[in-house]
Fold this protein.
Amino acid sequence: MTDQFLENSLAVFADRSLTGRALQPAGWDNVAGLVCGFGDRLAGPPAGTWTIARQAHGTDVIDVDGVEVGTGASLPLEADALVLRRPGLVGGVRTADCVPLLLMAPGRGWAAVVHAGWRGTIAGIATVAVDRARRDGICATELRAALGPSIGACCYEVSSEIGERFARASLPVLSGQGSDGRPHLDLRAINAVLLERAGLPTEAIQYCGPCTRCARDRYHSFRAEPELSGRQISWIGWEDRTPLRDR
Ligand SMILES: [Zn+2]
């Protein structure tokens, strides 16, 4: 399975020209040393030391600093959030409708990249990532969050059962919107609620980019292409500022 995953993730990189322009969260370009972006069908992470884990729609977090990254792109580990603290490391998540969430603390050298589909969202992956920051000595009020291109409420019709699960967790559900009256979810708004409950100020949370299904020309969307969908990569990390001769 790991081999299959590696093959899939390398294939994503192999057939993308990496010449597109990734979306950058507003105002994050002035954070010293930060490297980040939301990829699309063309844009991907910069070449170099980046890593990605096997995503499992769960709440496991890996601190990449503590892992031997090696030369490959993929960690043989399951996680839906990667914490990046060491200069020179970049972590990514693969999505096609799920929410890519970037978190970082300016001036503290702490960042995380999170994959949040509906399962990870209801399981609280956003909350778990903020808890990890707290354990690393970062206050929630120091964090900034960016929620990237993902399926919007316009296109995300779910079963009544899934809608009820979110309603029971006091998370927003748009009821009766679907073609047959089924509920719709706005996964970004729901993750924003979770981040606020975890202590992030509202103004520290931003949305980047459109609904992936509506903007399927630019983004992979599982709902738009269930058989064919690839994945875009979103990433965050810190530049290696060591002079080349000293590496
Ligand atoms: Zn849409």
Observations:
- DSSP finds five helices and eleven strands in the chain.
- The first strand starts at residue 34 and ends at 38.
- The pocket of zinc ion is lined by residues 152, 154-155, 211, 213-214 (CB under 6 Å).
